[in-house]
Amino acid sequence: MQPEPETVLIVEDDAFISMDAAESVARAGANVVTTETVSDALDCLEANRITAAILDFQVLDGNVAPVVERLKRAGIPYRVVSGSPVHEITARGIPADRIVPKPADYLKVMVQLVKDRPWSALRANH
């Protein structure tokens, strides 16, 4: 029996960045779910088996700190990819080692997520 594929949540309100991130995630062998808002991301976490997440810090309806808290509680690895100043992000309780500055290489972000989940089915070498 084949293991269920990984599903990565991408929270990004810029369509071009979201498409770039989704393409990288798909190339790494994962399913992709994208949202543009904190509200939709929280709903998505309730409705789907999310195994990792890539989040912009500031999206249409605010910052993603509530999403990060939910991910932390569930033990789901994540990275915040943002153009916001690092001190703004860390002030919301997000560790600096989980922050990647924009512009980002989303394939490298996927490699970081795979390192957080060594048992992952993601193909970090692609």
From TrEMBL:
InterPro entries: CheY-like_superfamily, Sig_transdc_resp-reg_receiver. Keywords: DNA-binding, Phosphoprotein. GO terms for molecular function: DNA binding. The modification 4-aspartylphosphate is found at D56. SUPFAM superfamilies: CheY-like. Transmembrane segments: none annotated. Residues 7-117 form the Response regulatory domain. This is DNA-binding response OmpR family regulator.
